[in-house]
User: Fold these one by one.
Assistant:
Number 1:
Amino acid sequence: MKRTLALASCLALPLMAAPAFAQSSNASGTMPSNDATSQSTMGQTGAGMTGENQTGMGADQGSMAGGKLTSADRRFVDKAAMSGIAEVQAAQLAQQKASSDQVKQFAQKMITDHSQLNQNLTQTAQTLGVTPPTSLDSKYQSQMSKLQNLSGEQFDKAYMKDQVRDHEQAIKLFRTEANDGQNPQLKQLAEQSLPILQQHLQMARSDMKTASR
């Protein structure tokens, strides 16, 4: 009897231990799941932080790409704008004071062409964060004052002489920018404007000879 009871007890112990072992295994089995969730959360957070950092770096690179104009490019914008304004104002004066129809026709073309060139320059400069001058400096104001005091043939001669000189200077300015400028948009603007300015110079030289007769 005693041997039979002892044997039964020995057989029962493994059976009783099995549920406990299973529960222990399940309890320890939940830990990897928590670790995986934690790692996933950390990975998502890290990815979010990386995305934000990359966005910030992209913005910084964009700002650097925009950059500021070099001093030479900025001088080109200022001088080209001033020259263009002077061309339009002098031509408007010529429409009133010139005695020659040929000079008046030339002046009208200057108004049309230089108004468009001025608009192109202003739009390009504004995309680069630069505002060109909108009024004449003392040099051009003095030139305008001299023309205002003239009339008839004297005005025609003086105006056309100024036009030859001013267009020679403008061509030199735009050619320098086209060749040596650092900003691609300004270089392209200068290249596209040069043929128009060269045409104006040819016309001015021809009309100056006629006005000087």
Note: The chain has two domains: 1-67, 69-211.
Number 2:
Amino acid sequence: MKHFITLKKLSLCVCACLFLLNCSKDEQESETQTSFYIPEGVITTDEAQDLNKAWQEKNAALFNKAGASKFENQHQSFWWSLEDLRNYLAYAEQEAQDKGYTMDGVRVYLAAYPEKDGQNTLFFAPTGRENYSKASTINFSFGNSGNIPVSPLNRGHGGTGDYNL
């Protein structure tokens, strides 16, 4: 009888351990599964190539006509690491919140470095709205978001050439 009770307790402990292990496995699996949606505006790679070609044709003529530095020397693409983009977005959201704004997007600006003979660049500027009342949860503002006082992101790695796969 004593062995039966010990065996019963051992069986109960084994079942409890298996149950807990199975629950933690389900939690780990659900943590690794990321939910996302394909945002509006995603285009095919063929469309991207067509857009890039049209941009090059339009701007090569403008650069050459204006007597600017050779078009081939201008950056035609810019690169930031995924880590830098994620860190910047987290930084910008926190800065916006600290300054009393709700960040709701990022605007991309075309720009040029005057000190680098007009070398083109671009930068990301956070957009959003000022928080007027912490008690209000309804946003009554309409229209496009405005720029907010958070430092933009620049200094990506520039590149030349076509968009090709």
Note: DSSP finds three helices and five strands in the chain.
Number 3:
Amino acid sequence: MKHIVILLGILLFSYSAAFGDELVYSQDGFGLAQGSSVAIAPFQDLTRSLAVGDKFAGYIAQALKQEGTIRIIGEDQFKTSLAYNRFKQGLSVDRSIAQKIGQQLGVNYVIFGSVIEYGYELAPDGKKTLPIAGVDVRIVSVNSGRIVFAGSFATEGSPGSQLDNVAMEAAKAFYDRVRQ
């Protein structure tokens, strides 16, 4: 039953369209503690933008580096482990794959997810374009195999804002929710 509730929560997060808002599930007030180690998996790109999944993984790593006390295993090492285990390139990472690779990398947690929006849309006045970025993020505990955090973060910039800056704001919103 608990898995169904988590799955429904993740599905609801995926269909959130409110910008600047976030929807979050956090097991027992989860937060990344000092001394934690995390691996960041390649993010699945649901936008069909070139390399945007790689960008978001990098933005999340950059946001986590602010903490300074969290050991981060980058996306490249995760990709190497995927290849070593003969997982197909471009395969979306799920909880069980994240746990297996996390065990091999010797980390406490694995962060993975999907980029759900990345681009521009017309402003309500119909004259200007606004940059938008959105990401669904999950954290799995390597020890238990359980998802301890799931969130959906979306941001919208003002006219003239750089799209990458707006995307970084979504990653920072994630970071603000998981730091202790």
Note: The chain has one domain: 2-178.
Number 4:
Amino acid sequence: MAEVIFTYQGYTCRTWQASDRDVCAELVDAVLKEHALVFHPDTEGDLLTVETVYQAGCFWVIENAVGKVVGTGGYHPDHRGANAVEIRKMYLRSSARGIGLGQRLLQSLESHAFSQGFRLIWIETDKRLPQAIKLYEKQGYQLTSPCLATHGCDQVFFKDLVDT
């Protein structure tokens, strides 16, 4: 049974279930295509193994009022620090953007990570996702060195939760 994480303006954020696998992959593929980006197995493959990759973190989906999945987001421990995580797969369909839902999701992921003892958050993204970059900057994330390790990413942001 999925656990409700939060509700917001008719949307429900809940824990991922195995039955969400295909719909989440389709959602991420659609959002990437919308921004002229490509679903790449090396970087999007974690959607096929959520229960393994996100075991020490979390992975959530957001449904609209009729139960359609319109968003995803999660985090897992990251190699860039003992108490570090990387927020991944934070995507919203266009119908769910511009109402503060992304901000609520990001803040909830941060709070959850902090409650689990994590203190540093990394986010990799692409300059072709300006709404995402604007959100990260608004939430106090700092741009650091260019992303060279992840296919399809050219921006790396970090936030120290201790300083916030």
Note: The chain has one domain: 4-121.
